[in-house]
Amino acid sequence: MKIMVTGGSGQLGRAFASHAESFADQMVLLSSSDMNVTIPHQVNSIFSQIRPDVVIHAGAYTKVDAAETAPQEAFKINVIGTRNIAVACLNYNSKMVYLSSDYVFDGQQTRPYTEFDRTNPLNVYGSSKWEGEIIAARICPKLFIIRTSWLYGDGHNFVRTILKLAQEREFLAIVNDQTGTPTYTVDLVQGIMSLIATDGYGTYHMSNSGYCTWYDFATEILRLAGRPTIVHPITSDEYVTAAKRPRYSVLRNYMLELSGLDNFRYWQEALAEYLKHSGMFAGDV
Protein backbone atom coordinates (compact mmCIF):
# COMPACT_ATOMS: atom_id res chain seq x y z
CA MET A 1 0.00 0.00 0.00
CA LYS A 2 1.34 3.41 -1.01
CA ILE A 3 0.16 6.21 1.29
CA MET A 4 0.52 9.96 0.77
CA VAL A 5 0.11 12.30 3.75
CA THR A 6 -0.48 16.04 3.40
CA GLY A 7 0.45 18.17 6.39
CA GLY A 8 3.45 15.91 6.78
CA SER A 9 5.29 18.29 9.11
CA GLY A 10 2.35 18.62 11.52
CA GLN A 11 1.62 16.58 14.64
CA LEU A 12 -0.41 13.94 12.82
CA GLY A 13 2.04 13.78 9.91
CA ARG A 14 4.88 13.14 12.33
CA ALA A 15 2.91 10.36 13.99
CA PHE A 16 2.38 8.72 10.60
CA ALA A 17 6.09 9.10 9.83
CA SER A 18 7.13 7.41 13.06
CA HIS A 19 4.89 4.42 12.33
CA ALA A 20 5.32 4.26 8.56
CA GLU A 21 7.08 0.88 8.48
CA SER A 22 4.24 -0.74 10.41
CA PHE A 23 1.48 0.39 8.07
CA ALA A 24 2.64 0.91 4.51
CA ASP A 25 4.95 -0.38 1.81
CA GLN A 26 5.67 3.25 1.00
CA MET A 27 4.65 6.44 2.76
CA VAL A 28 5.24 9.89 1.31
CA LEU A 29 4.85 12.86 3.64
CA LEU A 30 4.33 16.26 2.05
CA SER A 31 4.48 19.65 3.73
CA SER A 32 2.86 22.79 2.30
CA SER A 33 6.22 23.70 0.75
CA ASP A 34 6.26 20.36 -1.10
CA MET A 35 2.74 20.76 -2.47
CA ASN A 36 0.43 23.77 -2.36
CA VAL A 37 -3.00 22.14 -2.21
CA THR A 38 -4.69 25.30 -3.50
CA ILE A 39 -2.96 24.98 -6.90
CA PRO A 40 -4.71 22.23 -8.94
CA HIS A 41 -1.95 21.59 -11.49
CA GLN A 42 0.62 21.23 -8.69
CA VAL A 43 -1.61 18.72 -6.90
CA ASN A 44 -2.13 16.76 -10.12
CA SER A 45 1.60 16.74 -10.85
CA ILE A 46 2.39 15.25 -7.42
CA PHE A 47 -0.35 12.64 -7.81
CA SER A 48 0.95 11.65 -11.24
CA GLN A 49 4.39 11.04 -9.72
CA ILE A 50 3.30 9.21 -6.58
CA ARG A 51 0.05 7.52 -7.69
CA PRO A 52 -1.03 6.86 -4.09
CA ASP A 53 -3.44 4.13 -3.04
CA VAL A 54 -4.50 6.24 -0.06
CA VAL A 55 -4.25 9.96 0.68
CA ILE A 56 -4.39 11.17 4.28
CA HIS A 57 -5.38 14.81 3.90
CA ALA A 58 -4.19 16.26 7.21
CA GLY A 59 -2.89 19.51 5.75
CA ALA A 60 -5.10 22.41 6.81
CA TYR A 61 -5.37 25.97 8.02
CA THR A 62 -5.61 25.41 11.79
CA LYS A 63 -5.18 28.87 13.33
CA VAL A 64 -8.59 29.04 14.99
CA ASP A 65 -8.44 32.63 16.25
CA ALA A 66 -6.53 34.03 13.27
CA ALA A 67 -9.17 32.59 10.92
CA GLU A 68 -11.70 35.09 12.26
CA THR A 69 -9.82 37.91 10.54
CA ALA A 70 -8.49 35.79 7.66
CA PRO A 71 -11.54 33.82 6.50
CA GLN A 72 -10.49 33.86 2.85
CA GLU A 73 -7.22 32.12 3.64
CA ALA A 74 -8.93 29.55 5.88
CA PHE A 75 -11.58 28.72 3.26
CA LYS A 76 -9.05 28.67 0.42
CA ILE A 77 -6.89 26.07 2.14
CA ASN A 78 -9.59 24.05 3.92
CA VAL A 79 -12.20 24.05 1.15
CA ILE A 80 -10.53 24.76 -2.19
CA GLY A 81 -7.46 22.76 -1.19
CA THR A 82 -9.65 19.87 -0.07
CA ARG A 83 -11.59 20.04 -3.34
CA ASN A 84 -8.33 19.76 -5.30
CA ILE A 85 -7.22 16.74 -3.29
CA ALA A 86 -10.64 15.10 -3.71
CA VAL A 87 -10.60 15.62 -7.49
CA ALA A 88 -7.12 14.09 -7.72
CA CYS A 89 -8.21 11.13 -5.58
CA LEU A 90 -11.15 10.60 -7.91
CA ASN A 91 -8.95 10.77 -11.00
CA TYR A 92 -6.33 8.38 -9.61
CA ASN A 93 -8.81 6.06 -7.86
CA SER A 94 -7.23 6.76 -4.47
CA LYS A 95 -8.94 6.35 -1.14
CA MET A 96 -9.15 9.71 0.65
CA VAL A 97 -9.07 10.44 4.37
CA TYR A 98 -10.15 13.97 5.27
CA LEU A 99 -9.29 15.16 8.77
CA SER A 100 -12.04 17.26 10.29
CA SER A 101 -12.80 18.65 13.74
CA ASP A 102 -15.10 18.67 16.75
CA TYR A 103 -15.50 22.38 15.98
CA VAL A 104 -18.12 21.54 13.34
CA PHE A 105 -20.54 21.36 16.32
CA ASP A 106 -21.94 24.25 18.36
CA GLY A 107 -21.57 22.63 21.79
CA GLN A 108 -25.23 22.99 22.79
CA GLN A 109 -25.69 19.28 23.53
CA THR A 110 -25.13 17.69 26.92
CA ARG A 111 -24.34 14.23 25.57
CA PRO A 112 -21.46 13.16 23.30
CA TYR A 113 -21.93 14.02 19.63
CA THR A 114 -22.36 11.15 17.19
CA GLU A 115 -21.80 11.25 13.45
CA PHE A 116 -25.56 11.62 13.00
CA ASP A 117 -25.95 14.83 15.00
CA ARG A 118 -26.55 18.16 13.28
CA THR A 119 -23.51 20.32 12.65
CA ASN A 120 -23.53 24.04 13.40
CA PRO A 121 -20.03 25.53 13.64
CA LEU A 122 -19.53 28.65 15.76
CA ASN A 123 -16.39 30.03 14.14
CA VAL A 124 -14.69 30.47 10.76
CA TYR A 125 -12.31 27.57 11.29
CA GLY A 126 -15.15 25.17 12.13
CA SER A 127 -17.16 26.41 9.16
CA SER A 128 -14.24 25.89 6.79
CA LYS A 129 -13.70 22.33 8.03
CA TRP A 130 -17.41 21.56 7.64
CA GLU A 131 -17.48 22.96 4.11
CA GLY A 132 -14.40 20.86 3.39
CA GLU A 133 -16.36 17.77 4.45
CA ILE A 134 -19.22 18.71 2.12
CA ILE A 135 -17.11 19.37 -0.95
CA ALA A 136 -15.00 16.23 -0.50
CA ALA A 137 -18.14 14.09 -0.16
CA ARG A 138 -19.58 15.55 -3.37
CA ILE A 139 -16.49 14.61 -5.37
CA CYS A 140 -14.75 11.55 -3.96
CA PRO A 141 -16.72 8.28 -3.54
CA LYS A 142 -13.90 6.51 -1.68
CA LEU A 143 -13.90 8.94 1.24
CA PHE A 144 -13.37 8.63 4.98
CA ILE A 145 -14.18 11.78 6.95
CA ILE A 146 -12.48 11.65 10.34
CA ARG A 147 -13.51 14.10 13.05
CA THR A 148 -11.17 14.30 16.01
CA SER A 149 -10.60 16.62 18.97
CA TRP A 150 -7.99 18.30 21.16
CA LEU A 151 -5.09 16.66 19.33
CA TYR A 152 -1.60 16.40 20.80
CA GLY A 153 1.58 14.58 19.77
CA ASP A 154 5.04 15.41 18.47
CA GLY A 155 4.99 19.18 17.95
CA HIS A 156 3.45 22.30 19.42
CA ASN A 157 0.39 21.46 21.52
CA PHE A 158 -1.50 22.15 24.74
CA VAL A 159 0.50 19.62 26.77
CA ARG A 160 3.84 21.21 25.94
CA THR A 161 2.43 24.71 26.43
CA ILE A 162 1.20 23.85 29.94
CA LEU A 163 4.54 22.31 30.94
CA LYS A 164 6.44 25.29 29.54
CA LEU A 165 4.23 27.73 31.45
CA ALA A 166 4.64 25.63 34.60
CA GLN A 167 8.38 26.27 34.45
CA GLU A 168 7.79 30.01 34.27
CA ARG A 169 4.86 30.57 36.66
CA GLU A 170 3.62 29.45 40.05
CA PHE A 171 -0.05 29.79 39.07
CA LEU A 172 -1.95 29.04 35.88
CA ALA A 173 -5.51 30.10 35.01
CA ILE A 174 -7.21 27.58 32.71
CA VAL A 175 -10.73 27.53 31.25
CA ASN A 176 -13.04 25.12 33.07
CA ASP A 177 -16.29 25.43 31.10
CA GLN A 178 -15.25 23.90 27.77
CA THR A 179 -15.49 20.11 27.68
CA GLY A 180 -13.98 17.76 25.13
CA THR A 181 -11.62 14.81 24.75
CA PRO A 182 -7.82 15.02 24.38
CA THR A 183 -6.66 12.71 21.59
CA TYR A 184 -3.16 11.29 21.16
CA THR A 185 -1.91 11.33 17.56
CA VAL A 186 -0.47 7.81 17.86
CA ASP A 187 -3.91 6.43 18.76
CA LEU A 188 -5.51 8.40 15.93
CA VAL A 189 -3.01 7.01 13.40
CA GLN A 190 -3.78 3.46 14.53
CA GLY A 191 -7.51 4.13 14.22
CA ILE A 192 -7.17 5.58 10.73
CA MET A 193 -4.97 2.73 9.53
CA SER A 194 -7.46 0.14 10.79
CA LEU A 195 -10.25 1.91 8.92
CA ILE A 196 -8.54 2.41 5.56
CA ALA A 197 -7.93 -1.32 5.33
CA THR A 198 -11.70 -1.55 4.79
CA ASP A 199 -14.13 -0.16 2.23
CA GLY A 200 -16.40 1.21 4.94
CA TYR A 201 -16.47 4.75 3.61
CA GLY A 202 -18.28 7.48 5.53
CA THR A 203 -17.96 9.86 8.45
CA TYR A 204 -16.29 8.68 11.65
CA HIS A 205 -15.52 10.22 15.01
CA MET A 206 -12.11 9.26 16.37
CA SER A 207 -11.03 10.46 19.79
CA ASN A 208 -9.78 8.85 22.94
CA SER A 209 -12.41 7.72 25.46
CA GLY A 210 -13.75 9.83 28.31
CA TYR A 211 -13.86 13.62 28.55
CA CYS A 212 -12.59 16.56 30.57
CA THR A 213 -12.36 20.34 30.63
CA TRP A 214 -9.20 22.21 29.68
CA TYR A 215 -8.70 22.78 33.42
CA ASP A 216 -8.97 19.02 34.11
CA PHE A 217 -6.58 18.33 31.24
CA ALA A 218 -3.99 20.80 32.55
CA THR A 219 -4.30 19.45 36.09
CA GLU A 220 -3.69 15.87 34.90
CA ILE A 221 -0.72 16.94 32.78
CA LEU A 222 0.93 18.59 35.76
CA ARG A 223 0.11 15.68 38.08
CA LEU A 224 1.64 13.10 35.74
CA ALA A 225 4.66 15.32 35.14
CA GLY A 226 5.13 15.84 38.88
CA ARG A 227 4.88 19.63 38.65
CA PRO A 228 3.66 21.56 41.74
CA THR A 229 2.19 24.48 39.78
CA ILE A 230 -1.24 25.53 41.05
CA VAL A 231 -4.06 25.69 38.50
CA HIS A 232 -7.02 28.03 38.92
CA PRO A 233 -10.26 27.33 37.01
CA ILE A 234 -11.72 30.27 35.08
CA THR A 235 -14.64 30.78 32.70
CA SER A 236 -14.53 31.39 28.96
CA ASP A 237 -15.78 34.89 29.63
CA GLU A 238 -12.64 35.53 31.67
CA TYR A 239 -10.40 34.25 28.86
CA VAL A 240 -11.55 36.10 25.77
CA THR A 241 -10.54 34.75 22.35
CA ALA A 242 -11.30 35.98 18.85
CA ALA A 243 -13.08 32.76 17.91
CA LYS A 244 -15.98 31.40 19.91
CA ARG A 245 -15.45 27.80 21.04
CA PRO A 246 -18.13 25.16 21.66
CA ARG A 247 -18.70 24.66 25.38
CA TYR A 248 -19.22 20.92 24.88
CA SER A 249 -17.67 19.04 21.97
CA VAL A 250 -17.22 15.49 23.26
CA LEU A 251 -17.24 13.04 20.35
CA ARG A 252 -18.66 9.54 20.57
CA ASN A 253 -16.97 7.08 18.21
CA TYR A 254 -20.38 5.74 17.29
CA MET A 255 -19.67 4.60 13.73
CA LEU A 256 -16.60 2.74 14.98
CA GLU A 257 -18.73 1.13 17.70
CA LEU A 258 -21.30 0.02 15.13
CA SER A 259 -18.50 -1.35 12.93
CA GLY A 260 -16.76 -3.16 15.79
CA LEU A 261 -13.63 -1.04 15.36
CA ASP A 262 -13.60 1.22 18.43
CA ASN A 263 -10.35 0.40 20.23
CA PHE A 264 -9.59 3.86 21.59
CA ARG A 265 -8.34 3.92 25.19
CA TYR A 266 -9.13 6.51 27.86
CA TRP A 267 -7.45 9.85 27.42
CA GLN A 268 -5.63 9.63 30.78
CA GLU A 269 -3.87 6.41 29.75
CA ALA A 270 -2.89 7.87 26.39
CA LEU A 271 -1.59 11.05 28.02
CA ALA A 272 0.58 9.07 30.43
CA GLU A 273 2.13 7.16 27.53
CA TYR A 274 2.78 10.38 25.61
CA LEU A 275 4.56 11.92 28.61
CA LYS A 276 6.64 8.78 29.09
CA HIS A 277 7.56 8.68 25.43
CA SER A 278 8.49 12.38 25.55
CA GLY A 279 10.55 12.02 28.73
CA MET A 280 8.18 14.21 30.75
CA PHE A 281 6.59 11.57 32.99
CA ALA A 282 7.34 11.84 36.72
CA GLY A 283 7.13 8.14 37.44
CA ASP A 284 4.82 6.53 39.98
CA VAL A 285 2.30 9.31 40.68
Give an overview of the whole structure.
By secondary structure, this protein is of the alpha/beta class. The protein has a domain at 2-157 and 182-208 and 250-265: Rossmann fold. It has 10 helices and 12 strands. The strands form 4 sheets. The protein has a 6-stranded parallel β-sheet, with helices on both faces. Strand 4 (95-101), helix 5 and strand 5 form a beta-alpha-beta unit. Helix 3 runs parallel beside helix 4, helix 4 packs parallel to helix 5 and helix 8 crosses helix 10 (267-277). The mean pLDDT is 94.
What is shown here, in short?
The chain has helices at 11-18, 20-23, 40-50, 71-91, 124-139, 158-168, 185-196, 214-225, 254-259, 267-277; strands spanning 2-6, 26-30, 54-57, 95-101, 143-148, 151-152, 171-175, 179-180, 183-184, 202-205, 212-213, 230-234. It has 285 residues and is of the alpha/beta class.
- Indicate the radius of gyration in whole angstroms: 19 Å
Total number of helical segments? 10
Indicate the percent of residues in helices: 25-40%
Shape descriptor reads globular
Strand content: 15-25%
| Level-1 CATH class name of the domain at 2-157 and 182-208 and 250-265 | Alpha Beta
Overall residue-averaged pLDDT value = 94
Structural category is alpha/beta
- Main sheet strand line-up: 2-1-3-4-5-10
Relevant CATH superfamily of the domain at 2-157 and 182-208 and 250-265: NAD(P)-binding Rossmann-like Domain
Spatial gap, N to C terminus: 42 Å
Give me the count of strands.
Answer: 12
Instruction: Enter the CATH topology name of the domain at 2-157 and 182-208 and 250-265.
Output: Rossmann fold
Assigned CATH architecture of the domain at 2-157 and 182-208 and 250-265: 3-Layer(aba) Sandwich
As an assembly, this protein is single chain
* Biggest beta sheet attributes: 6 strands, parallel
SSE arrangement, N to C: EHHEHEHEHEEHEEEHEEHEHH
| Low-confidence blocks of residues | none
